[in-house]
Write a structure and sequence with these properties.
Chain A has helices at about 10-25, 40-45, 50, 65-75, 95-100, 105-110, 140-145, 155-165, 215-230, 250-260, 275-285, 310, 320-330, and strands spanning about 5-10, 30, 55-60, 80-85, 120-125, 150, 170-175, 185-190, 200-205, 210, 235-240, 245, 260-270, 295-300. Chain A has about 350 residues and is an alpha/beta fold. Chain A folds into 2 domains: about 10-190, Thiamin diphosphate (ThDP)-binding fold, Pyr/PP domains (Rossmann fold), CATH 3.40.50.970; about 200-330, Rossmann fold (3-Layer(aba) Sandwich). In chain A, helix 9 packs across helix 13 (about 320-330). Chain A is globular and about 60 Å long. In chain B, the strands form 2 sheets. In chain B, strands 2-1-3-4-8-7 form a 6-stranded parallel beta sheet, sandwiched between helices. In chain B, strands 5-6 form a two-stranded antiparallel ribbon.
């Protein structure tokens, strides 16, 4: 039987992975606030309860912390829970169970038990999401030993990595950017898993490496598309990390060893952030080989403001990237060039009409 | 209703009780040797509830407990040499030396772990119960915690979820009236009855003042029978008394956080004496001798066990 490959959205790729995981293994169960409500967590859980029943697909009380602990108990007894949240920020109520519990349970009990838990968290941006609906806290999760952290940038990776996460014997934090949900990509209908901890080179180049993850990959792709039209000499290598932890250090170091220049594009906060960690890893290995100091582009050490009149100054723009590359190669920036002209400050595209 | 107990029941309870008390006292006695280099929260004074409970527990039932978990581990027939080894930080410990006294586990008897964070293990026990329910198993999930944990948000989240989903969990609150050294009256309103909160939430609750073996036995029996037969959660609050310091091997009367008369009253109500009054001296002597031997050999096992090696440090961060 030949399997079809179709152009589908990120959210449909997630939906397909959820269906196929539950089909594959009866031990997989899904729960989260709103999982069976009319909106079905942005349609990602469409059809699940109808197909697998209320015992395996259930809505929950507004008790983020307890349900994380319940996930530990379920996972210890051989179940494979998928625990979902419409915003990462709500899940912060579950930090005790995640950090003091799930991340350490395997280690602190000498390997006697293990916890195959997948936590789906959605990160918001713009349209007034504001300070508490927009945080990219992957660096927090990655900081704690015992957690895997995944940030796919496209539908194909989203499906393959979600399936791999669900059947991974460890707790995995699976981070989806809300602005990627409507992005379209080629996705096989059939079941497939992608290895966790492998970055992907999206664009091959020799002169500078851009390292990105999640929605920042979309920004970087846009930038390269424009930049290639205005500059034919500089070739850019773009790495999509896909997995924050484990991190594909080999891929990063191999690329930067070749290009000798690096820009890290990260959706998280700048201070003590993930971009700083990447730069530290590169510097510790390759500091004497770099032709230009590493550049870090992140959101500032400031909460996301709600007003769109402020948020336009908040997120890194594609022009930021353009100016950074020019600086790196000592090129004059052309002030007439505005790579952000087709972008709206606070929505990913016309498909997004708010509110969430 | 208060039952009368058979002699056989009293004997079983006494055996468990002595196992817990003597082991805890031995840890207390040997602590200054400096070989048990981790915090210990001893259960001296709190033995009776787990000892009686052990009569109603099946091997397939799960236990989840707290930082003060030794008594529960022993009540569930956890491996004692491995427990002492764990406190010694040895490779043969329940958690290969990664957890210590506050992180005991013995999956062979379904003792599924303990947590050092107050209230933290409560939802884990609910998750084990939910798994039993989904997989149509008849076993019960027992969750132990103290009065302090009933002040944590996760406690309310967990009992609400258990009530909502009708999860067969036995919540056991051993109320020793202190969260470390802070008494109940600085933590909860006067005249609060913890077990009465549960009725409003929709979980049937039981209460024992823990004045007599028969009273505790009857309370536990009825509560567990209810949960087992109805496949519903149940909450039991039992008053208890911690004799030693919150954490460590010593008494703590010098701190003056509680009236010395309070401790004297606990000791007057000592269940070891109450049980011994019901037993023949020959049984008492025989049991104590057996248990002392068992405990000594557990310490010897821990002492002679090999230590974890450098390569063990990195082991089990992730499961491959």
């Amino acid at each position: 039987m030949c399997s079809k490959i179709r152009n589908i959205t990120y959210i449909n790729a997630i939906n397909s992975a959820l269906h196929q995981s539950m089909d594959k293994d009866k031990k997989v169960i899904s729960f989260g606030l709103g999982i069976n409500d009319p909106k079905r967590i942005f349609n990602s859980t469409k059809g699940l309860v109808e197909k697998f029943g209320i015992e395996r697909v259930f809505d929950i009380p507004t008790s983020e912390n307890a349900l994380m602990g319940v996930s530990i108990g379920l996972a210890m007894s051989g179940m494979k829970p998928i625990y979902m949240h419409q915003r990462l920020d709500f899940f912060l109520l579950a930090m005790d169970q995640l950090i003091n519990g799930a991340s350490k349970w395997h280690y602190m009990f000498g390997g006697k038990v293990n916890l195959p838990i997948t936590v789906r968290l959605i990160i918001g941006r713009g349209w007034g999401q504001g300070p508490t609906h927009s945080q990219n806290l992957h660096a927090w999760f990655a900081h704690v030993p015992g957690l895997k952290v995944i940030m796919p940038s496209n539908p194909y990776d989203a499906k393959g990595l979600l399936l791999k996460s669900i059947f991974d014997p460890n707790p995995v934090i699976f981070l989806e950017h809300r602005w990627l949900h409507n992005s379209i990509g080629k996705v096989p209908d059939k079941y497939y898993e992608l290895e966790i901890g492998k970055a992907k080179i999206i664009n091959k180049g020799n002169d500078v490496t851009i390292i990105a993850s999640s929605y920042m990959v979309a920004d970087a792709i846009n930038f390269i598309k424009h930049f290639e039209k205005i500059n034919l000499k500089i070739s850019i290598e773009l790495i999509d990390l896909r997995s924050i932890k484990p991190l594909d250090k080999n891929c990063i170091l191999k690329s930067v060893k070749k290009t000798k220049r690096v820009i890290v594009l990260d959706p998280g906060f700048s201070f003590c952030g993930f971009a700083s960690e990447i730069i530290s890893i590169i510097s510790l290995s390759l500091i004497n080989e770099l032709k230009y100091k590493p550049i870090k582009i992140t959101v500032p050490d400031i909460p996301e403001p709600t007003s769109r009149f402020l948020v336009k100054y908040y997120y890194p723009s594609i022009n930021n990237l353009y100016r950074s590359v020019c600086k790196m190669f000592n090129l004059k920036t052309n002030n007439k060039i505005n790579l952000d002209q087709n972008r709206q400050v606070d929505v990913p595209g016309d498909w997004f009409k708010g509110p969430f | 209703m208060v039952y009368s107990l058979t002699n056989q029941d009293i004997e079983k309870i006494y055996k468990k009780f002595i196992e817990i008390r003597f082991l805890e006292l031995e840890i207390s006695k040997r602590y200054s040797e400096g070989k048990m280099r981790c915090p210990v929260h001893l259960s001296v004074g709190q033995e009776i509830v787990p000892s009686i409970l052990s009569l109603f527990v099946k091997k397939a039932d799960n236990f989840i407990s707290t930082h003060r978990g030794h008594a529960h581990y022993i009540a569930k027939n956890g491996n004692i040499p491995e427990m002492i080894s764990e406190i010694y930080g040895k490779k043969t410990g329940t958690s290969e030396g990664k957890g210590g006294s506050m992180h005991l586990i013995d999956t062979k008897v379904n003792f599924m772990g303990t947590s050092a964070i107050v209230g933290n293990s409560i939802p884990v026990g609910v998750g084990l119960g939910l798994s039993n329910k989904i997989n149509k198993k008849n076993s019960l999930s027992f969750v132990f915690f103290g009065d302090g944990a009933t002040e944590e948000g996760v406690f309310y989240e967990s009992i609400n979820f258990a009530a909502l989903k009708e999860i067969p969990v036995v919540f056991i609150c051993e109320n020793n009236k202190y969260s470390v050294y802070s008494p109940l009256d600085v933590r909860q309103p006067k005249n609060r009855n913890i077990h009465k909160i549960l009725n409003g939430i929709g979980v049937k609750s039981f209460f024992s003042k823990s004045k007599s073996v028969e009273e505790i036995y009857s309370t536990l029996e009825q509560a567990i029978r209810y949960s087992r037969s109805k496949r519903k959660p149940v909450f039991i609050e039992c008053m208890t008394s911690r004799w030693l310091e919150h954490c460590g091997p010593n008494e703590d009367n010098d701190l003056n956080y509680r009236d010395i008369k309070e401790l004297d009253a606990y000791k007057k109500n000592d269940f070891q004496k109450k049980l011994e009054n019901k037993l023949k001296i020959t049984y008492i002597k025989k049991t104590q001798k057996q248990i002392i031997k068992k405990i000594n050999s557990a310490f010897k096992f821990a002492d002679l066990s090999s230590t974890p090696k450098k390569e063990d440090l990195k082991k089990n961060v992730f499961k491959n």
